[in-house]
Specification:
This protein is of the alpha/beta class. It has twelve helices and 23 strands. It folds into two domains: 237 residues, 4-Layer Sandwich (Metallo-beta-lactamase, Chain A); 140 residues, Flavodoxin domain (Rossmann fold, 3-Layer(aba) Sandwich), CATH 3.40.50.360. It has a seven-stranded mixed beta sheet. Strands 17, 18, 19, 20, 21, 22 and 23 form a seven-stranded mixed beta sheet that branches. Strands 12-13-14-15-16 form a five-stranded mixed beta sheet, with no helix packed on it. Helix 5 crosses helix 9, helix 6 runs antiparallel to helix 7 and helix 8 packs across helix 12.
């Protein structure tokens, strides 16, 4: 990525990682990502906001040379995760005069992760400021926007907010600023689902904090920047709100067709009752798709056959992820099948302990689903319809 002007005295000097397809050996990146870094030039001092992941340091170094950054006084670290600090040790060697500016929690992590000497780190507190001469950086400590160390940095004179991971997207693009396309909306929602959703309740407050600044521009550390902040803020309003949609997500696997038959019967029964459904075959679906599907629905159903004495491992992974991401669903249940034994219902239910849901009666069958099984599924569909009628604003009944 070439260095580009973002605002007067602010250059974007980070890297686009077009080819990366996996983050943390966990999160799929179908659209790549970027590590955004900003050089802020004041009349007296120069600050660099964040850095890039190791492996992309050549882009950053080339851009700093092109920008004529012979001296950097401060390297602001908004968050210690290595995709933004992987090249910090190298930067500190290149710029021996530079101080790292961060909060106390992040300082401890930087010393642990990279062995950064304590004497090179300046700790700042919430709403503290740093003068660059004619420019002022203000720091907002925002723990649990994803990590406990996260902070945001605000360039007051230009009303530019450097929001770290918050409000970003894993999207490699040559566009400097967000264009309101389906591609960006999907990338932003996927990013929220995979990274931000567990912190939904903290984020509600931080959205207010951000709006209180009235930024004219928001520059996250991944993906294109926001020159129309309300676009992303209003998308977040919907995702973090307590409002759930008249929708059921069913995550399932099936070995010999029993669980699939149960799932298909439930899908048909829900459609007949005016409930929207998303049927996700876990073994053939990447986890990011499942994460995105968990953002809005009122009800989550996990369905698995039994392998030996427990649920199918692919569904175990899906249940673990669902529990970790803490979606806002109000209702959940499980459906399982088995041949000669097992505790799949109990295990799956136990895995969803972090969800604040009402557990609806599970459905379990030995062997292939019987007429009695299908009747239990129709009763489950009735219950889901009744709950959705009572709790969702978009239930309008069968077509
Ligand atoms: Fe993009 Fe939490 O690092």
């Amino acid at each position: 990525m070439s260095a580009r002007s973002v605002a007067p005295g602010v250059l974007s000097v980070g890297a686009i990682d077009w080819d990366r397809r996996l983050f943390d050996d966990l999160i799929p990146l179908p659209d790549g990502t970027s590590y955004n870094v900003f050089l802020v030039q004041g009349s007296e001092k120069v600050a660099l906001i964040d850095s890039v992941d190791s492996g992309t340091e050549m882009s950053l170094m080339t851009n700093l040379v092109k920008a004529g950054a012979e001296r950097i006084d401060y390297i602001v670290v908004n968050h210690a995760e290595q995709d933004h600090t992987g090249t910090l040790p190298l930067l500190l060697e290149m710029y021996p005069e530079a101080s790292v500016v961060t909060n106390k929690t992040c300082k401890d992590l930087l010393m642990l992760f990279h062995g950064i000497p304590e004497e090179r780190i300046t700790v700042v507190g919430d709403r503290e400021t740093l003068s660059l001469g004619d420019r002022t950086l203000e720091f907002l400590i925002t723990p649990w926007v994803h990590w406990p160390d996260t902070m945001l940095t605000y360039l007051r004179e230009e009303r530019v907010l450097f929001s770290c991971d918050f409000l970003g997207s894993h999207l490699a693009t040559s566009d400097l600023f967000v264009r309101d396309t389906e591609e960006w909306r999907r990338a932003a929602k996927r990013y929220y689902a995979e990274i931000m959703m567990p912190f939904r309740n903290s984020i509600k407050g931080y959205l207010e904090k951000v709006r209180g600044l009235a930024p004219r521009m928001i520059c996250p550390s991944h993906g294109p920047l926001h020159d129309d902040p309300e676009l992303v803020l209003s998308a977040y309003d919907g995702w973090v709100s307590d409002e759930v949609k008249n929708e059921v997500v069913i995550a399932y696997a099936s070995m010999h067709g029993s669980t699939r038959a149960m799932v298909e019967h439930l899908v048909d029964a829900l459609i007949e009752r005016g409930v929207r459904v998303r049927q996700i075959h876990v073994p053939s679906t990447e986890l990011g798709e499942l994460a995105m599907a968990l953002v809005d629905p009122a009800t989550i159903v996990i369905a698995a056959p039994t392998v030996l004495f427990g649920p199918h491992p692919a569904v175990v992974t899906a249940a673990y992820l669902t529990n970790a991401l803490k979606p806002k669903a109000r209702f959940a249940t499980v459906m399982t099948s088995y041949g000669w034994g097992g505790r799949s219902v109990e295990i799956l239910k136990g895995m969803l302990g972090q969800l604040k849901v009402e557990f609806l009666d599970p459905v379990q069958v030995k062997g292939y689903p019987t007429a009695e099984t299908m009747e239990s599924i129709r009763v489950l569909a009735d219950t889901i319809r009744d709950r959705h009628k009572a709790t969702t604003a978009d239930y309008i009944g069968p077509a």
